[in-house]
Amino acid sequence: MKAIVITQPGGPEVLQLTDRPKPVIANDEVLIKVMAAGINRPDVFQRKGNYPPPAGAPADIPGLDVAGTVIEVGKAVTRWKPGDRVCALVASGGYAEYCKAPDGQCLPVPASLSFPEAASLPETFFTVWSNVFDRGSLQPGESLLVHGGSSGIGVAAIQMAKALGSTVYTTAGSDDKCSFCEQLGANKAINYKTADFKEGIKALTNGAGVNVILDMIGGDYMPGNIDSLAVEGRLVMINAMNGREVQLDLGKVMAKRLIITGSMLRSRNTAFKAAIAQNLEQKIWPLLSSGKIRPIVYKTFDAGEAAEAHKLMESSTHTGKIVLTFVQ
Ligand SMILES: NC(=O)c1ccc[n+]([C@@H]2O[C@H](COP(=O)([O-])OP(=O)(O)OC[C@H]3O[C@@H](n4cnc5c(N)ncnc54)[C@H](OP(=O)(O)O)[C@@H]3O)[C@@H](O)[C@H]2O)c1
Description:
Elements: E1 2-6, E2 15-19, E3 29-39, H1 41-47, E4 65-73, E5 85-89, E6 98-102, E7 106-108, H2 115-119, H3 122-135, E8 143-146, H4 152-163, E9 167-172, H5 175-184, E10 188-191, H6 197-204, E11 210-215, H7 222-228, E12 229-237, H8 250-255, E13 259-262, H9 270-283, H10 285-290, E14 297-302, H11 306-315, E15 321-325
Parallel strand pairs: 8-9, 8-11, 9-10, 11-12, 12-13, 14-15
Antiparallel strand pairs: 1-2, 3-4, 3-6, 3-15, 4-5, 5-7
Helix pairs in contact: 3-4, 3-9, 6-7
The structure holds NADP nicotinamide-adenine-dinucleotide phosphate.
NADP nicotinamide-adenine-dinucleotide phosphate (NAP) binds next to helix 1, helix 3 and helix 4.
C-alpha cells in the first residue's frame, strides 16, 4: 500500500509517499480502506520527533483518525462487516491507504457526511468528550472557556458544549478567527492578541468566572486561567504549547476550590477509548446526523501533498480541520 512516512525527524519535507505492507489485523480489529485521514497538531509534534506513538502502533506513519470502508474484520468482531462506512480513532498509521483499528474505536459514518468530513471527527471529538465532559464534568447551564477556538479541537469543543446546553467563550488569534468562532456558536470570542482574555472573561461573567476551561496553551496562560475560573471551577490541560512550567498561586486554588487536571488520549487503552466512542455515538452522533453539529473541514489535500498540509497547519492560518484524501 501507499503510506505517508516520516523519513526522519524534521520539517514538513520529511513526509514522503512510500510503499509499505498492508497492516495485519488482530481478532478484535477491522481493516479499513482509507478514503480520508484527518491531520491533527500532534502529527506535527510526531513528525518533529517529539511525540512518539505508543508501543505497537506504527512509529513512522502518522495519522490519528481515518474514514473509509471496512474490508476485513477479525474473528471476534461482531459489530462491523465488509462494506460498512466507518470512521475510527487510531494511535498512529492513519496516513495510509489501509489502516487497522480496534472495533470499539470505530463509529458509523452518518449518511449525510462525506469521508473527508467523517475523517475530521474522531481525534478531536474523542479528546473533547474525554476532557470537557468526563474530566471537566461540564454540565448543561454551566460555562466553558476554550482556548484556540478556531483549532480542530476548538471547533469540536465550541459546537459540542453549545449543543449540550452550555455558554461558550473562546479565544483566537485574529478578528476573523473570532467571527468564525461566533458563527459556529460561541457566545463570545476574545482576540487574545488585542485583548486580555482574563479581563474579557471577567466582564462577560460579571466577575464570576467560568466553570470549565479547556486549555492547550499553558505557560503564561496559567495565572489568567486561574483568575478566570469560578468557585469550584475545573481547568483541563490537553497540551502546553507555550510551556510546561508555570507560575501558580496555590492560595487561589484553595480559596476557589479549583480542580486542575489534564490528560493525553493516545496512550490510553482500547477499553477507555471504546467507552468514549459509546458516549459519542449516543449523545453526539444524532446531532451530527441532524446537522446541529457540523464537521468543519477547512481544506483537503491529496495524500501525496501531506507536506503542504503540514505547512498549512504550522502556519496556523486554518480554521477547523485539514484532511488528506486518498485517490482510489
Ligand atoms: N491531550 C490530548 O489528548 C490531545 C489530543 C488532541 C490534540 N491535543 C492538542 O490540542 C491542541 C490543538 O490541536 P489541533 O489539532 O486542534 O491543532 P490546530 O488545529 O493546529 O490548532 C492549534 C491552534 O492553536 C493556536 N495557538 C495558540 N498558541 C499557539 C502556539 N504557541 N503554537 C501553535 N498554535 C497556537 C493557533 O490559533 P491562533 O491563531 O488562535 O493562535 C492554532 O491554530 C494541540 O496543542 C494538540 O497537541 C491534545
